[in-house]
Design goal:
nucleus, Homeodomain-like_sf, Plant_SW-associated_TFs, DNA binding, single chain, DNA-binding, Arc Repressor Mutant, subunit A, two-stranded antiparallel sheet, 189 residues, disordered C terminus, 9 helices, 2 domains
Length: 189
């Protein structure tokens, strides 16, 4: 019961610059030891998981911020094609015995792109690269992400609703309905 009352007082959502400064200062002074126990003495009303994710994905020294280069994007596309949707099990032999570690494809790709996190790569893949690959890249001109997003939304958005009825009836009369599939036909057959 005490834990659920404590969890209700935790802050959620975007991190403030002050919170970032507190976490960085605490880690510089005391190091990383137990994420679940670090938040309170650091003066943060965050969960240990939230502190860990903020550090690992945004605040850790050496993380690159900003746009991906063409070379980074090519590496992501190439490795994603080779790795697919698999996880990988790696055996690490230490002095105390063997340890099995599971890596997902984003972690493997991140290991080839210094300064980029697996989370950042995954988000960039889903927000930009996977959309680009749905189209034949050779037939599209070289364009920025914003231009591509505009192009791809143009291709998938429904037609405008402010077209005069006279134009709609003229264009639909010119189209033969015999070549269109009926609404009851199954396209998978």
């Amino acid at each position: 019961m005490a834990k659920s009352v404590e969890n209700r007082a935790l802050k959620k959502g975007a991190w403030s610059p002050e919170e970032d400064k507190k976490l960085i200062a605490y880690i510089k002074r005391y190091g990383i030891w137990n994420w679940a126990e670090m938040a309170k003495p650091a003066g943060l009303q965050r969960s240990g998981k939230s502190c860990r994710l903020r550090w690992v994905n945004y605040l850790r020294p050496g993380i690159k911020h900003g746009n991906f280069t063409k070379e980074e994007e090519e590496t992501i596309i190439d490795l994603h094609e080779k790795l697919g949707n698999r996880s990988f099990h790696v055996q690490v032999v230490s002095s105390s015995g063997q340890i099995m570690v599971e890596l997902n494809r984003w972690s493997v790709i991140a290991s080839k792109l210094p300064g980029r996190t697996d989370n950042e790569i995954k988000n960039h893949w889903h927000a930009h690269l996977s959309k680009r690959l749905k189209y034949d890249l050779n037939s599209l001109p070289d364009m920025s992400d914003a231009e591509f997003d505009q192009y791809s939304s143009f291709k998938t958005d429904p037609p405008p609703t402010n077209v005069p009825n006279a134009l709609i009836s003229e264009s639909s009369a010119a189209t033969s309905t015999n070549s269109l599939p009926s609404s009851s036909s199954n396209p998978k057959q």
